[in-house]
Amino acid sequence: MTDRRSNTLTLGMIALFVYFLLPLFWLVVASTKTTGDLFSSFGLWFSQDFSLLTNIRETLTYDGSVYARWMANTVFYSVVSAGGAAFLCALGGYGFAKYRFRANGVLFGLVLGSVMVPTTALAIPTYLLFSKVGLVNTPWAIILPSLVSPFGLYLMRIYAADAIPDGIIEAARIDGASEFRIFFQVALRMLAPGLVTVLLFTLVATWNNYFLPLIMLNNPDLYPVTVGLAAWSSQSVGGSGSTGALLSSVVTGSLLSVIPLIAAFLLLQRYWQSGLSTGSVKG
Amino acid sequence: MKTDSPRPVRRVRRGASSANPAATGYLFVAPFLLVFVAMLVLPLGYAAYLSLFQDRLVGGTVFSGLDNYVTALQDDRLIESVLRMARFFVIQVPTMLAIALLAALAIDSGLLRFAKVFRLGIFLPYAVPSVVATLMWGYLYGPDFGPFAQLADKVGTAAPAFLSDGWMLGSMANIVTWEFVGYNMIILYAALRAVPHELYEAAAVDGAGAWRTAWSIKIPAIRPALVLCLIFSVIGTFQLFAEPNLLQRLAPSVIDSAYTPNLYAYTLAFTGQQVNYAAAVSFLLGLVIVIASYTVLFVTNRRSRA
User: Fold this and answer.
1) Which of A49, A59, B98, B239 might form a disulfide with A118, Cβ 3.0–4.6 angstroms?
2) How many C-alpha atoms does B213 have within 13 Å on its Cβ side?
3) pLDDT tens across B60-87, in order?
4) Do A280 and B275 touch (CB under 8 A)?
5) What does the UniProt entry say about where the protein is found (chain A) (predicted)?
């Protein structure tokens, strides 16, 4: 055999590929249909009327443009949380990797052990604490808990240990640079791929979070898109009569909500793929 | 590293941080640790504290020791939900990790056309929120306009009732598998890329085929990554919430308020107002996950030594 490529393997992978993309294909197709066609036409192909733009307009304008508001909230919560979390992880990971202070091992072990603490088991006590100090029903209720990423810290420590040679730090010290200046002007740039990885994965975690905002917020104006879509969907299932129109908005809203993250992953793939490899190899 | 740098230069500058760079490390890790303590250690401690009290009709909130835990361990609904998740775990996680491993090996093998397209396509569902994934699959499963029901109708049979009691756990397992195969695949693939290629060449010289190489060299080499995936799966399974919460609306008679442990804790705290008991359940659930994770670590470590 001169060609090393295997057709059987390729066929098997095509089957997998279809399985993973079929629901998304359905979502795209369904977003182009009127509610009537959703029921009457075959789910996996387009119907005669192409009403994607009407659906998008309806989704964006329904109930005083609340959907646009939810999207804006989601973007705000996830960008602030991910930026903050990635920064804390970079700072901490660098600190743990490059400074031999006395409690280094103990503290890092403590953080690493907490990787196994389920975040949802924390959500209820956090809610109770937040309601005592009046943070419930504010954006902080979503952002503050999302700033902690023990796995991100672990990833950044490995990454910092690998990517930043001690010699460079020593040289900068000899030049008289302060420790924080070394971090911001020398180290941070070398940490970039790891930083993008942590940024992207905490972004996804916050973007996709449902449990935390569900319990923390009861003002629809503060909802992220996940909680909003879930609320719409239960209205369209539970109610009757006028709720039919909402169904196509749930479908179209779902499609709109996944586009930004998919785009981010596609655009930044070089970074997160190399960043992830460091984490899993040393694990 | 502390004594390597030239002394005279260092003495030029004063202040604690320049005299002892090691201590500056505390300043670097302090912000993370501060948030860590406030958002992780404190709530955990608070849950433990709350779980030791009970809200009584007479006397209000009183200290009750481990009573909530005694109740929880005898709570049939809680035990049933934990067992249900254990059953879910046993079926879903091996399936998911097997698919992820096969896909990662296939993409890494060099035997595949369009490897990059496959890698991205399979990973894509990870970027879809679990709420959207569940809504989508809920429609696909649906007897009204789900394509499975439509297709079955065309050939004159009925599609399985995906949202019925008998199918629900499997239907949910399918959603979770769909969401997370790609994530696990990427972790495993990244680990495979780091296996030294001399090992493959040596195996090829010895006459090993692609399957043999995969089984005897690649899989053992990425064991740490597999263990990592397994642990993340333990954590994920026992805190399943969005999927059952949304499917409940489609099939309220199948999914009760204690279908998963997390759903139960949520119901206790927000519908039942049994905050103290909910805290005990949350704490216990965390404990179950930690024990299960360490069991996984212990078992896999022992096996690798044997």
Assistant:
1) B239
2) 22
3) 888 988 999 999 999 999 999 999 999 9
4) no
5) Cell membrane
Of A43, A88, A122, the CB nearest to B147: A43
Q: Which residues of B touch A171 (CB under 8 A)?
A: none
Which one of A91, A114, A127 has the shortest CB-CB distance to B31? A91
What ipTM was estimated for this complex? 0.90
Domain A50-282 indexed as CATH 1.10.3720.10:
yes
Q: B173 to chain A nearest CA, in Å?
A: 14
CATH of B73-305, one of 3.40.50.300, 3.40.718.10, 3.40.50.720, 1.10.3720.10: 1.10.3720.10
Higher pLDDT, B239 or B177: B177
Residues B43, A126: Cα–Cα separation, whole Å:
5
pTM: 0.90
Q: Among residues B265, B78, B97, which one has the least CA distance to residue B176?
A: B97
Across chain B, what does the average pLDDT equal?
A: 87
pLDDT band at B142; cut points 50, 70, 90: confident
Alpha-carbon gap, residue A265 to B120, rounded angstroms: 9
> Distance between CA B60 and CA B65 in Å, rounded?
15
Higher-scoring residue by pLDDT: A282, A166? A166
* A114: pLDDT strictly greater than 70: yes
For the cut 70, the answer to whether the pLDDT of residue B120 exceeds it is yes
Q: Does B252 touch chain A (CB under 8 A)?
A: no
A261–B50 C-beta distance less than 8 A: no
Listed residue (B266, B287, B236) closest to A127, CA to CA: B266
pLDDT at position A168 over 70 = yes
Q: How confident is the model at residue A4 (pLDDT cuts 50, 70, 90)?
A: low
Q: Mean of the pLDDT values across residues B263-285?
A: 90
The answer to whether A167 touches A100, Cβ cutoff 8 Å, is no
How far, in Å, CA of A124 to CA of B42, rounded? 12
Cβ of B29 under 8 Å from any chain A Cβ?
Answer: yes
Distance CA B14, CA B158 (A): 81
B 97-126: CB under 8 A from A: 99, 103, 106-107, 109-114, 117-118, 120-126
Q: Which residue among B106, B111, B231 sits closest to A4, beta carbon to beta carbon?
A: B111
Q: Cβ separation of B10 and A6 shorter than 8 Å?
A: no
Domain ranges in chain B?
73-305
For residues B232 and B32, give the distance between their C-alpha atoms in angstroms, rounded to a whole number.
22
Chain A CB contacts of B200 below 8 Å: none
Q: Write out the two tokens for A165.
A: 């040679």
CB A59 within 8 A of CB A67: yes
**Residue B148 in contact with residue B162, Cβ under 8 Å?**
yes
Can you list the alpha helix ranges (DSSP code H) found in B110-164?
Answer: 115-123, 130-141, 147-154
pLDDT band of A241, cuts 50, 70, 90: very low
Which pLDDT value is given to residue B162? 92
Interface contact B122-A257, CB threshold 8 A:
no
Q: How many whole angstroms separate alpha carbon B273 and alpha carbon B20?
A: 53
Judged against a pLDDT cut of 90, whether residue B129 lies above it is answered with yes
pLDDT reported for residue A238: 58
Contact state of A226 with B29 under an 8 Å Cβ cutoff: no
Cα B33–Cα B37–Cα B42 angle in degrees, nearest 5 = 175
